[in-house]
Design goal:
5-stranded mixed beta barrel; 4 helices
Length: 210
């Protein structure tokens, strides 16, 4: 994800932007945003597939299979899933398929995102998106996190590419959970963000999923 920023002379991020070096330097997730994030992501996907295959393997005769319910992570609600659960269909919610209408193109020696016309029209619009929380700190409630199209199934990796991630800042902290959440707020479509993020929601709030 952060490869878009490699080799570019990064402008100074504004005060409310995601600064990977400062905000997540102590986070295992933050390390995935540094140079080589694509290789780390590929390795994480492989590890996730291996873990899933192992979980589905039949036990050896005469042994008892361990329960398929990992223990809850400290400070988080519920157990971390082995496989991402499906997102609920929420009327009026922004589609991740629409947000995926973007491709990296080379411009002046660096890669930048090229969005479809439909995605470009979403810039600075009020939207709501259902997704999974990817916490950036260890606190139980957070007002700055990532919203992703799939849940985190690997503790060391980002679960999607930049088209499947939205940086979120909320007015009030949101309780961390592995269940889907619905976030409403103002969407920014970022064409040349120094952190490599494609989308950002500011002044957001968590809504109940009905």
């Amino acid at each position: 994800m952060n490869e878009l920023a490699i080799g570019q002379k990064s402008p100074q991020p504004h005060a409310n932007s995601l600064n990977i070096k400062d905000t997540m330097k102590t986070s295992t997730i933050g390390r995935c945003f540094k140079a080589g994030a694509a290789r780390r992501l590929a390795a994480g996907i492989l590890l996730s597939l291996v873990a899933t295959a192992q979980a589905q393997t039949a036990p050896t005769p005469g042994t008892v299979a361990p329960p398929n319910n990992p223990a809850p992570m400290p400070g988080h609600a519920g157990a971390q899933p082995l496989v991402s659960p499906p997102l609920p269909a929420v009327p009026g919610a922004l589609s991740w398929d629409l947000l995926a209408q973007v491709k990296p193109v080379k411009l002046k020696g660096k890669l930048v995102p090229e969005f479809s016309a439909a995605v470009g029209k979403l810039d600075r619009q009020e939207v709501k998106v259902a997704g999974f929380m990817l916490p950036l700190q260890s606190s139980e409630r957070q007002s700055h996190f990532l919203l992703t199209v799939t849940s985190q199934t690997c503790s060391f990796c980002v679960p999607a590419g930049p088209e499947g991630i939205i940086e979120v800042r909320t007015r009030t902290p949101v309780r961390v959970t592995f269940d889907p959440v619905l976030i409403a707020g103002r969407l920014e479509v970022l064409r040349d963000d120094p952190t490599g993020v494609y989308y950002r929601i500011s002044n957001g709030e968590a809504l109940p999923i009905r």
